[in-house]
Amino acid sequence: MSHGALVSLSAALLLWSLTFPLVRGLLGTVPIEVLLALRFTLAAAFLFLFWLTQRQRLPRGRDFWLAAFSGFCCVTLYQLLSTHGLRTVPSGPASVLVD
User: Residue 82's closest CA among 67, 70, 94?
Assistant: First the structure.
């Protein structure tokens, strides 16, 4: 495994492991919608920077709308439901259940 892949994998695992305790800790102070908007904004910024470095073109036409619809259904609804679920399930078991 290359050094860059190892660093990327380590960063992804670190960020993933921090997600559940941070969300659980912020639920009482920050509204869920604001928390999700912040998470999506950060993710979009990182993806946009990655896209700029790769010089790939965006999907066009029907492919764009299918990707947007599946992104909304699979990501947004998942995040809303899992964040609401963290209100009742501790962060440790929640991270195992989601995987």
Answer: 94
